[in-house]
Specification:
Length: 143
């Protein structure tokens, strides 16, 4: 597996992000997409010639980055793609000077919650648009 940076308008990345939103809409309904900061940097996991996962780090402030658009195609789940991608995103966040990486995920995504907790992420109070959303869980990890 290769993990590489891709521009936000990359076709394979766009396909992964669309698939991620389709899955989220199926789980939670059409709640609307959250925006991604224009300075967000995207990574794509590739096996063979197929893009199978993605994620991004966007700046919050000089010390904090936020994980966005983390997704692995269903037929590649359980193979370590998400864990490898998360590690690469953490490395990217460190390289950008972030001391903390935070994220938000939903209550209907127990696999994601297990991944983040198992990777050292700790629960934090909800932030931003998630403050009054009891079905969203927020986590952070010191890098």
């Amino acid at each position: 597996m290769l993990i590489e940076e891709r521009p936000a308008d990359d076709d394979a990345l766009s396909g992964l992000v669309s698939a991620a939103f389709e899955e989220l809409v199926a789980k939670y309904g059409a709640e609307g997409r959250s925006g991604v900061h224009p300075e967000a940097r995207f990574l794509v996991a590739v096996t063979g010639d197929r893009a199978v996962g993605c994620g991004a780090v966007q700046p919050v402030d000089s010390a904090t980055g936020e994980l966005k658009r983390m997704y692995v195609v269903p037929d590649h789940r359980g193979r370590g793609v998400a864990r490898s991608l998360l590690g690469a995103l953490e490395d990217l966040a460190r390289a950008q000077g972030h001391a903390v990486l935070r994220l938000a995920t939903g209550h209907l995504q127990p696999e994601a919650i297990r991944l983040y907790r198992g990777s050292g992420y700790e629960p934090i109070p909800p932030y931003g648009k998630y403050v009054n959303v009891p079905t969203t869980f927020c986590f952070a990890k010191a890098l």
